[in-house]
Amino acid sequence: MAYSPLNGGLFPKRLLHPAFPVVIFIVFFGLAAGFRYGLIGQYTGQIQSNLENETRSMANTLEREFMVHADAIRRMASRLAKDPQKPESEWREDARNYLNDFRIYQAIEWIDRDFIIRWLEPLASNEGVVGFNSAFNQQRRSALEAAIRTGNYDISGVIELRQGGKGIVIYAPVGTGPNNNGFVAGVFKMETLARQLMATREPGMFRIEIRSRGATVYTLSDFERSDATASYTVPIKLPTLNWQLNLEPSPEWFEKQTSPWPRWTFITLLFMGLLTSLATLFLQLILKRNEALLTARRKLDEEIAQRETIQQDLVRLESTDTLTGLANRRFFMEDLAHTLNIANRQSYQVALVMLDLDRFQMLNDSLGHQFGDALLVQVAGCLNQLSNERVTVAYSGGDEFMICLQHVEDIDDVLHLLGRIKQCFETPFNVQGEAHKITATLGVAVYPQSGLDADTLLRNADIALYRAKEQGRNTYQFYTEGMQEREVMRLELEKDLSQALVKNEFVLHYQPQLNLDSGEINSVEALIRWQHPRRGLLAPGEFIPLAEESGRITEIGHWVVMAACQQLAAWRGTRFEHLRVAVNLSGRELDDDSLVERVRNTLAAEGVPADRLEVELTEEIFIQNIEHNLGQLRRLHDLGVHLAIDDFGVGYSSLAYLRNFPVDLLKIDRSFITEVTERHDDAVITRAVINLAHNLGLQVVAEGVETRAQLDLLRSQGCNMAQGYLISRPVPAVELEKALSNGAFEQV
Ligand code: C2E
Ligand code: CA
Ligand code: CA
């Protein structure tokens, strides 16, 4: 699995949860609120103590002022006590000085023993006060009497002044007890007093109340009373009075006292929280995007890997044949081209071997495709054992394989390889529980002499293979320059062959078969020739395989039967009327279901009895398509047509088939006859075949008899008939007739 910062552990997964930035913000908010609360608490305490200090300091000032004035009044009183005869004018002088010194006084009075106000300074606007009784109620009287007794001064509460407004009066007794001569009294206007208190302070900052026994007796206020809870009260320590000072600050004062820090701290922290959570959110987005990219990348990687695997599979499938598991033709050819490139540069040779299984088609047709496939797999398995770093093996299709020897030093290397290939076919292949002996034909082309490129090399290996096949299979051929010409010819012939029938270029030659008992010629074999317009008379070996390959053999076969029948018809009523004509049919012609019908029609058309015609077939009919072939042969035989097995002994047929097939004649293959007088084993085989045929009630013809010795041997072995150059070459009908008429065969 690809590395991911998310799964890899750099960040726990929950940090990517969308709630995480919100949590961060909430934490910061809590922090901000906490700080704010704490700071506000701290500052509120501060403000409270400021207020207390302010209040106390105001009370102190008030007390000090009072005491100063009280002392001044008392001093005045004691001076008057010392000098009871002080004239009024002198007292007034004294009082005026006081008034000037302490601007706070509204008035200074002398009150006599009976509490009546006598003297007053300043008199102006205070005239009405003279004669007023200061002990205007019982409380005042007792207080004043107490003052006389003790000699202490008395301070009135806040009273309505006779002069108007509210005020306080300090009474200092003049002399004590019986020596008392009234009081000197100083009258303050509350307002003046308060103003003096406020003098050092900014205006409008406080609401000041003076309370006596809880009740407000005086208020100095520059603003309307707020419902603010912040206020502070301290007692004012003055003799005879029970006063308190209550200070209530104005909102402006609060404003001034209030620190901006809680707010700024709050805002700052909140802002930081917002930033942090935004940054987190952003980071999350980036990481998620990154993760998405990584996931996409991983998926892409997986997909690419998958595709590569598929691609490799495809390439492997494309380069491999699915049946055999070998490299296929295309791949082999690409590889060959590459090999030739290297060989060119390093100046060495390369050998290409084309391998074709002999009679594979026949086996495939007769034993089925499954058998064919199984056989191919076995052959492939065996050939594949040859492959190594210098040898590549491929399946070319059909029953063809290709083998490349990539580095050839000399011809021995190739011969060694061919030997190893041959070894593959030495032991029979076990297919579907049965052992099958298979042979192969090889064509070899060597680079550079047999071709400079892969295609040419392949074509020439093919040509060599074709030549090897022509030479009887189970062999090999190296490509030679001459083969190229042959190949050109072959292609030309193939083209011309398509016209040969129409142009009536085929002819039949007849080779007589000598009856060894009677010395008579009773039958002839019709052998086809092609009178080629440029190349002259061509033997069947040069065009029959071509015709078989192209499928033209069927039409040619019809022509042969027809031509033979016409010849028989021509001989009717002559001295050759008794001759039987044998025609050659290839196995493929037997596949044609209309064959029997056509033969019958041809015989009928020419008015020829069926027993004048003989059909020669090779052993392969016992191997391929047995049921069908058996049916065909039975019907031919039922017509009255004679049946002969040609080239007997070279095929791989089981002799048991001879019992089942309606055969009249066996033709021992020429290969046994050629050296029958020299080779003991050939003689043995020949005798065995003759005996076998006779035991089965069949006649025997020996082919390719060229010497008298051969003929004598065959005759001594009881062979029924002989055919060969010794008696006659295949000749045109006219010559045959002449020879027969001349009794040319009678000396043999
Ligand atoms: P085959 O049926 O075995 O014919 C005998 C071949 O041996 C003939 O070759 C013949 O000329 C040759 N021969 C006969 N006596 C001797 C001899 O003493 N010595 C030697 N060396 N050869 C001898 P040919 O005419 O070239 O025919 C070759 C093959 O072509 C035939 O072999 C036959 O398989 C095929 N063939 C010929 N005519 C026809 C035909 O009309 N139809 C088909 N399908 N095949 C034909
Ligand atoms: Ca024949
Ligand atoms: Ca033959």
Topology at a glance:
Blueprint: H1 19-82, H2 88-101, E1 105-111, E2 117-121, H3 138-150, E3 154-155, E4 159-160, E5 166-173, E6 183-189, H4 190-198, E7 206-212, E8 215-221, E9 232-236, E10 243-249, H5 251-257, H6 261-319, E11 327-328, H7 329-346, E12 349-357, H8 360-367, H9 369-384, E13 391-397, E14 400-408, H10 411-424, E15 429-431, E16 434-436, E17 440-447, H11 454-470, E18 476-478, H12 481-500, E19 506-515, E20 521-532, E21 536-538, H13 540-550, H14 553-571, E22 580-584, H15 587-591, H16 595-606, E23 613-618, H17 626-639, E24 642-648, H18 657-660, E25 665-668, H19 670-674, H20 680-695, E26 699-702, H21 708-716, E27 721-722, E28 731-732, H22 733-742
Parallel strand pairs: 11-13, 17-18, 20-22, 22-23, 23-24, 24-25, 25-26, 26-27
Antiparallel strand pairs: 1-2, 1-6, 3-5, 4-5, 5-6, 7-8, 7-10, 9-10, 12-14, 12-17, 13-14, 15-16, 19-20, 19-27, 19-28, 20-21
Helix pairs in contact: 1-6, 8-9, 12-13, 14-16, 16-17
The chain binds ligand C2E and calcium ion (2 copies).
Ligand C2E binds at residues 511, 527-528, 539-541, 544, 560, 583-586, 616, 646-647, 703-706, 723-725, 730.
Provide a descriptive summary of the structure in words:
The chain has 748 residues and is of the alpha/beta class. The chain folds into 3 domains: 49-253, CHASE domain (Beta-Lactamase, 2-Layer Sandwich); 319-481, Reverse transcriptase/Diguanylate cyclase domain (Alpha-Beta Plaits), CATH 3.30.70.270; 492-741, EAL domain (TIM Barrel), CATH 3.20.20.450. The protein is 49% helix and 21% strand. The chain has an 8-stranded mixed beta barrel with strand order 19-20-22-23-24-25-26-27, surrounded by 5 helices. Strands 1, 2, 3, 4, 5 and 6 form a 6-stranded antiparallel β-sheet that branches. The two termini are 96 Å apart. The model is unreliable at 1-9 (pLDDT under 50). Bound molecules: ligand C2E and calcium ion (2 copies). One calcium ion is lined by residues 525, 584, 616, 646. One calcium ion binds next to strand 24.
